[in-house]
Amino acid sequence: MKTAELIVTQGRAASRFPIGGKRLLIYVVYDRRGDVEDYIPYALAHLRDHCDRILVVVNGLLTDAGRAALAPVADEIIVRENRGYDIWGYKAGLDAVGEAIAEFDEIVLANDTWFGPVRPFGPVFDRMDSHELHFWGMTDHVRVEPNPFTRKDYLAYHLQSYWLAVRSEMFLSEEWVDYWRDLPPMDSYSDAVVKHEAVFTERFTAYGFSGEVAFPTLTDRIENHAVLYAEQLIDEGCPTLKRRPFFQSPPYLDHLGVVARWTLDAAARHGYPMELIATDLARNVEPRTLNADAALMSVLPTDSYVDGPDMTSPLRVVVVAHIFYDEMTDEILDKVELLPGNYDLVVTVPEEEKAQRIRAVIDRRPARGEYEVRVVESNNGRDQSAFLIGCRDVILSDRYDVIVKVHSKRTPQDESNASSHFRRQQWENLLCTHGYASEVLQLFRTQPRLGLAYPPMVHIGYGTMGHAWWANRPSFVEMCARLNIRVPVDEGSPLAPYGSMYFARPAALRVLAEHEWQYRDFGGEDAYVDGGLAHVLERMPSYAAGERGFYTRTIANPEYAAISHSVLDYNLDQMSSTMPDTTMHQIDFLKRLGDLGRGTGEDFLYILARLRRPELEPKLAAFFARARRARNIVRSWLGR
Fold first, then answer.
1. Which strand ranges, in their side-by-side order, compose the sheet holding 502-504?
2. In the chain, fewer beta carbons within 10 Å around the N or the C end?
3. What is the 3-state secondary structure (H, E, C) of 380-397?
4. What's the pLDDT tens digit per position in 50-62?
5. Is the dihedral of CA 302, 305, 309, 314 positive or negative?
6. pTM
7. Please, what is the angle between helix 617-639 and helix 601-612, to 10°?
8. How many angstroms separate the CA atoms of 503 and 183, rounded?
9. Cα distance between residue 533 and residue 87, in whole Å
């Protein structure tokens, strides 16, 4: 593996890292909850073998649980105001160390924007220790003209600031002291790049200090290689995996041919504990974005039956079925009986007369476990209230590993073809064959952070694409705040079990079940509309699961996946044919137009400038400012 030494204007004596030398790590953490995700202690514990002192700087809040997670792996923890991004966090750490920095031979400035070690740290430290240099970075970024942040000059070649190691000849110099003393304020991400990351390397090489990069850019393309070539970097031995590929815009990754799922496969192949990645991403990425970036849709075979060592400890399964239309009881039980092994059954129903008929149907069938038919107090909220109120004890208990939630689904308000397709789409992608149901349960058996599995969003016969929030998003955001769900909320359609039937791990639903709902919260039949509580809660499970660190998979059988893909492929092709450029640019253009709101000619010219001629935007702004002033003068004169 080659390294690329940076150009220097004047030579300064450099040194290797000495045998028995001392290394300081200043590691900056930011978490909007004040928590510390599990991947952070894991990284710090592995860095302990190479660092004599670890100082963690927390930007913003730190909970007691977060402090407890850091305490075993940090020598000192500093909590500071969340100001100046990680760069000012580094400065706070350097200020805290003070003159004691002279005790060290090298300092590493690193932040929490990466998972690792995906590959061992040791070989990288050994290789860079043997080189005579003043500073080194894990990855670099090529020079860009013009600067994408300022639209002028250039963005200098630089070592990326998430990992910079500096030797004593440099950090004891006057230039180093002056740099951090005069560090400018940074109020935005672009400030952090323009005022530090893109400046640091060029500044210190101009002073005569030499540096290297451990893993140089892999191509000459002007791209962020640490993000877009993460899979290749892992295979080259890079121990750090940037988190960004898993919350980057899916159309952007698609445009550049990046399949983040393959990056995850590479990390797993090299032995990184994947549950650390899964937990962090579930809590901190919009679920629908994560579903796309990580390709979390599973197309499962219908003709297999999972058997093997894992089956010696079968999952404890309970089916929770809300049966309002009791004439559908046999149909529902036929589907449920496709589950492998034994399972318990809890049926909720709003009327005792219906409950008696349902019990009679169940009694005629062979027993697969215990069953109970519960008559709920009210049908307000339908299956949502029956589940969260009538079966709250089931969700909160530790009796079961998996809950299968179903109900007697009818959509009499929809056209017959659409309604029939929706019902079929739900059942055939949830419980279509014995083998398919076995495959779904195997997902839960082998993936401990899997929280929910359910069919993809229905789109044939329904205008859901891009619109599936309908009128529910404002109330949804309010409910998230009420339940303390901090998972980012998707701007486009939510990732949700439309139709409200799914497989779930009980622990993934406890944020919802721990709240003490009342039937009156749901209102009467007239409240069962978009914006009402039942429709809001239908869209909530994946976000609630994410808050507890569980992710969601969408599941489909091969036949439906083929039908769905063919329709989506054709529709996207037809829509894209109406506009030039790539899908990513088309989406960006349409989003910007949709965000205009007022739809004025001025807005339209602005959007064209931003997309095609960004250098014209300041001129347009000046022109329209003059026009507005002139208009106001005329209006004022006419008003007199």
1. 297-299, 551-556, 450-454, 502-504, 402-407, 317-322, 344-349, 371-375
2. C
3. CCHHHHHHHCCCHHHHHC
4. 999 999 999 999 9
5. positive
6. 0.90
7. 170
8. 52
9. 43
203 by DSSP, 3-state: which? helix
Torsion of CA 29, 30, 33, 37, to 10 degrees: -40
Token pair of 316 as six digits: 């404890």
Separation between Cα atoms, residue 596 and residue 228, nearest integer Å: 31
Expressed in angstroms, the distance from the first to the final Cα of the chain is: 77
3-state helix/strand/coil string of 253-291: HHHCCCCHHHHHHHHHHCCCCHHHHHHHHHHHCCHHHHH
Rounded CA gap, 422 and 559, in Å? 15
**Three-state secondary-structure class, residue 540:** coil
| The length of the chain, given as a count of residues | 640
Whether 101 contacts 171, CB under 8 Å: yes
pLDDT in tens, 40-52: 999 999 999 999 9
Residue in 48, 89, 40 with CA at minimum distance from that of residue 65: 40
**CA–CA distance from 493 to each of 90, 289, 456 (Å)?**
38, 10, 12
> Pick from 492, 491, 616: which is nearest to 607 by CA?
616
CB atoms within 10 A of CB 270: 16
d(CA 568, CA 228): 26
